Amino acid sequence: MTTPARPRLINALPPEGRERFMRLASQVGFPGGTRIFEEGRRADRFWIVRSGSVTLDLHVPGRQAATVETLGTDDLLGWSWMFPPYVWQLGASAASQVSALEFDADEVRELCEEDPELGRVVYHQVAWIIARRLHAARTRLLDLYGPQGSAPGV
């Protein structure tokens, strides 16, 4: 299986909408170890990782933050910008040097309102990503904190 030239979210956009969407992108970089965003803070932008890796983590009271997923090339970083109250549901750190496309959340939401076809595709793709991430987070937390031998069917 070959990797697509553009991330899944961008590939799924209708051609005219894709061009408008990409005009909103800015190239950014994060050195390894940089905290990109904190759980509970305002979510006003998102990124598509072009290279490097980012860890997503969840605050666990009384314990060290639990890494729930590691993102890499072409992954969407951040979805909390899409739904009120627009606060991050997880935290994120650059695990290595990261290059990414950055998008302003207000501009993208406005574009999605102006172009309902584009908006439908963006929301559908982000919903798919959220579902996948929630499943991954649940699995990871069960691995970390569930009772030993808690595999399904046991």
From TrEMBL:
It comes from the Bacteria. Residues 9-78 form the Cyclic nucleotide-binding domain. SUPFAM superfamilies: cAMP-binding domain-like (SSF51206). This is Cyclic nucleotide-binding domain-containing protein. Transmembrane segments: none annotated. It holds the Pfam family cNMP_binding.
